[in-house]
Amino acid sequence: MGGAVGILAYGSLIGDPGAEIEPAITSRIACLTPFPVEFARQSRTRKGAPTLVPSERGASIRAQMSLSI
Question: How many CB atoms lie within 10 A of CB 8?
Answer without folding.
Answer: 13
